[in-house]
Specification:
The protein has 96 residues and is mostly beta strands. The chain is built from no helices and 9 strands.
């Protein structure tokens, strides 16, 4: 049977609220709501590290869509950001 591994990464403090994570392959998207922003992190399970992070100041809701090569993040203020996870760079950043 597979061996169970535990990975601990600090994602916030006591005043933070962890939102529902999204998992695709070896990556996890973790969104955490704090008082004045939502922080979205991409965690690579093989590297056991955070490989991308963004802070959406003023947002109180966020939606993420993780695919093999991209992460799309939209918030309640109309911001939409698309990140290329292979090159770790932003490929779209606009407001609707």
């Amino acid at each position: 049977e597979g061996e169970l591994q535990k990975l601990e990464i600090d994602i916030g403090n006591q005043s933070s609220e962890a939102l529902v994570p999204e998992i695709f392959g070896g990556r996890v998207v973790s969104s955490v709501r704090a008082k004045d922003a939502i922080t979205v992190r991409v965690i690579d399970l093989q590297l056991k590290d955070i490989t991308a992070q963004m802070s959406l100041v003023g947002a109180n809701q966020v939606s993420t869509r993780l695919t093999e090569n991209t992460l799309t993040v939209a918030d309640n203020l109309g911001r939409v950001v698309v990140i290329d996870l292979r090159r770790n760079c932003t490929i779209r950043n606009f407001r609707v």
